[in-house]
Sequence to fold (493 residues):
Amino acid sequence: MFWPLYFAQSLSLGSAASGVGLCLLWTPQDRVVPALDPASYAVAGNLYSRDGVSFLLRNLLARPTITDLVLCGKDMTGSGAALVALLREGIDAHGRIIGDGTRLHPELPPAAIELLRRSVTLHDHRDTVRPEQIAPLLNGLRRPAVAWADAPLIFPYSEPSADALPAAEAGLLLRAPTIRAAYLRLLWHVMRFGQRTGTQHSSDQRELLDVLTIVSDEPADPAHFSHAAWMPLDRASLGERLPDGSYTGYLGQFLQAAPGAGVSYTYGSRLRAFPPTGAGPNDGTLDQIAAMVADLRASEASRRAVAVLWNPAYDAGSASPPCLNLVQARLRDGCLHLTAYFRSHDIYRAWADNAYGLRALQGEIAAALAAEVGELALLSHSAHIYAHDWAHAEELVAHHYRAADPHQVRDARGAFVIAIEPPEIVVRHYNLAGEHLQTLSGSTARELGLALVPYVGELQHGLYLGRELQKAEFALTLGRPEAYRQDRPLALD
Fold:
């Protein structure tokens, strides 16, 4: 039998005749193991996480001749405390360590865990880190290998499949050039990181809170929208702009004042004919879009070009109040930027349609002001996908979503040119217009990586820079600065 079964490449083997195991927690093995007598231990390794406790148990059960476990090193993550609690207290009926809460692998039978607890003695010397302190502990123990099970105890292992991956309680920023690309990124993130919760409706949902999606390059003309045939709303239903300036389909509901037959309100009626206080939902007189345009004409620096769609006199207590609550327009350097706030956002069925409607609205406001169309920002407080759409969302993601190529990610904070100018690595920072902003230098990837953190705005860009800096450091360390060229493999031949 090959042993250890798990993380063999990360463990140091001593003598098969020894019944002692050494767990060093977070203290590096290379600082300790060279000072030890190989005959004084069978195996030595680290325990970085609570999840690692299950793998430690699996290795001990697969070779049940280790009778004593010496615990040393720095306990940085509570993994040592979990191991101590397990061997002293055991597990509860749910497979969790009593007093700690760590869940062990479900394939590990409670009877096997109890056998190990009875058979292995723990020697708790946490915070003992110096080799000259650890070596005497092992030399004084000197336990021979004694079998405490008739045969190796090996159990199946299944890779985990989490229902939802961990994420911040609130706040996610996504950027994409088009609405189509942003829609796919949103679907992927909600399905991977959204918490499964109940709703006021009959269906469960996966939900992220406060998702800000920025779209930069979507055309404002509906004839050139990035709409795709695989989206839930077909192109005909989305609508088009007619020669007289009116709109059909969903765009008509979003951009025009007249409510559709059989509906209590439309976004267009709230934006173009907002009802006065106390009136019915469609008894309106105020064209909020015209007011926004007039405000921005009066002052390009205005922060008052705001339209609201929530009417407290009518919507408080309503069974179906508007999901879109606020729209704000800003002028900056001749570009018209638009921000929208949604209290509730059905990402699968409604987000893309809403975004196309807002982009068309943004285009109209920009045209009225003779401005360029800038970025569109959608803040979705509750970004959710209902259970009955999960399978459809996963299918769209599987067939159409591709992670962005780091080389093609546009980082608004700038770009970096990396070169080796012995004895240092030099990084020159440029803005997107190609202007040189600053120069940073250092001798290691770690040093420069820490210096660059404040100037990197996109995760993919940061990962790319990390790879390039490590390549540059390697070439510099080898004394081969000419071997490094950014975006190329190292030329070491």
Remarks:
- The chain has three domains: 8-141, 172-403, 415-483.
